[in-house]
Amino acid sequence: MKRPIAMFAGTGHAVPRRALTNDEFAAMGIETSDEWIRERTGIRQRYIAGDGETLTSLVTEASRQAMADAGVHAGELDAIILGTVSPDRLMPATAVEVQAALGASRAVAFDLGAACSGWLYSAQVAEGLLATGQYETVLVIGGEVLSRIVNWKDRNTCVLFGDGAGATIVRRSTKGRGILSAYMRSDGNLADLLHRPKGGGCFPMNDAVLAEGSHYIQMSGREVFKHAVRSMADASDRALDGAKLSGTDIDLMIPHQANIRIIEATAKHANIPMEKVFVNVDRFGNTSAASIPIALDEARRQGRIVDGSTVLFAAFGAGFTWGSMVVRF
Ligand code: UT7
User: Where is the domain boundary, 176, 207, 242?
Assistant: First the structure.
């Protein structure tokens, strides 16, 4: 089928009330420093969910904004796809709780677990749903409350992640706007480099798991870093090739916000100057599946994306999963 099929008709985002700065880790007894975190990652602060704030509440707020932006009401939603690896409950999917909160009674709702690539995968699944002709309006969200699955004693991970949600409305393309090219990949051979080793079906939660903290996220940072740089560079090439464009044709690049050094390396490879790269990792940290849709919403609201803008997206995450898209707005 010929692209574009699907376009982004509205965006929104939500984060918890509380911002946690780098300096606050020392007071929590964690051996780290603002200087180390800023230099190695570019992160200055991240938002952390407090009492009463859940994945469902953040995603619902972001979704309401996106629906208002697109002029879509809940009864019009045909599907809700939530990219997340930090659901409120292991069963059922958080997407159905969001469906209930929104009153989107007609929609089919499900979660999609692709870690930091979750929104990018979900957008491509939504495009596929639209291509069947059976779906018109899909709510595509990336949302995470990673603060509840990181080990707050592990400085290798706890300084990196943040909570938040970004929502988008995907509808049938008009006037040549929408997804011009898209790419997805995964490699399960590398699953152990970034994972939650226990607490699932293979090693059910018990006192020993709790005591050793093996239900929390564990990451081999340096290895993940290398793969992220390589895979996001390759994914950017694929999406550009698919759209028959080069880096110089891109008005804005929105990469997954994990680490400023990964972002810079990816942009350099794609021949896109940093002035054309959207960066908010300094304020949000790594929000996994939420990072790209939060950045997309900020970029639109700041006027960095206007009608006709051509935007390159690239993501990489646990799995490993990675992918990319070129979108004309
Ligand atoms: O979202 C998609 C998946 N995630 C990513 O893309 C993240 C990819 N990885 C990274 O961004 C980087 O690897 C990190 C930011 C996680 C780490 O940066 P790095 O430059 O690769 O550092 P490293 O892991 O090689 O550690 C360097 C040193 C180590 O000390 P020694 O062994 O050299 O004495 C660490 O123990 O830094 C130490 N270190 C810290 N020091 C202060 C690790 N974490 C911290 C910390 N504060 N928070």
Answer: 176
